[in-house]
Amino acid sequence: MPLKGDEVQEKLKAIKLFLFDLQGTLIPENDNGEIIPADLIEKLSEFGGFCNGRNMKCGIITGIENGKLLDAIKKLGVIELAPASLDKVSAAEKIAAGFGCSLDETFYMGDGILDVPLLTKAGLSTAPKSASRQIKKSVDFICPENNGAERLDYILSLMKRIEVET
Which whole-number Å values give the CA distances from 42 to 24, 39, 96, in the listed order? Predict the structure, then answer.
């Protein structure tokens, strides 16, 4: 059963690591990483900077091996990258261990069948509203936004709301 807004906010307080799938979540499903959406890069920079300034980390786990978009994300210097990752749980555990946290302290947004194991193990999980019904059943809440930059901005706004409340 999906969490209500105040339950999401409460779980979000324990999160130290924010991870995102790339294809279907931050970029269109059929994009191979060769297009560099300026609004996404700008929002990733803002999101990563926000996290780093608060002793949190942000990362992307993707099946894409390389491409212009991954190169642009690497250049930001504020986003952990796990490219060519089909076992997303192992990739997330490796990133979390490197940061000294657990999957219970990890947020994950994904949209595909390969994301389900991590969506169910993460401390807080979400899927875009465009995800299939099967995927939506695996997450704590549905992200209502339409594209990657808007989805990042939505999560960032939830994080900032917690900051204002505390």
Answer: 19, 5, 24
Residue 112, amino acid: G
Separation CA 23–CA 63 (nearest Å)? 8
- Report d(CA 123, CA 107) in Å as an integer: 6
- How many contiguous H segments (helices) and E segments (strands) does the chain have? 7, 6
Q: Which pLDDT score, from 0 to 100, does residue 6 have? A: 85
16-33 burial, b for 16+ CB within 10 Å, e for fewer?
bbbbbbbbbbbbeeebeb
CB 56 within 8 A of CB 16: yes
Please answer whether residues 144 and 154 qualify as being in contact, where contact means their C-beta atoms are separated by less than 8 angstroms.
yes
Q: Against a cut of 0.85, is the pTM above it?
A: yes
- Quote the tokens at residue 67: 């491409």
DSSP-assigned beta bridge partners for residue 142? 127
pLDDT tens figures, 42-83? 999 999 999 999 999 999 999 888 889 999 999 999 999 998
* Mean pLDDT score across all residues of the chain: 93
The residue type at 71: D
Q: Which CATH number fits domain 5-165: 3.40.50.1000, 3.40.1360.10, 2.30.42.10, 3.40.640.10?
A: 3.40.50.1000
Mean pLDDT of 117-141: 96
Q: What are phi and psi of 80, to 5 degrees?
A: -75, 140
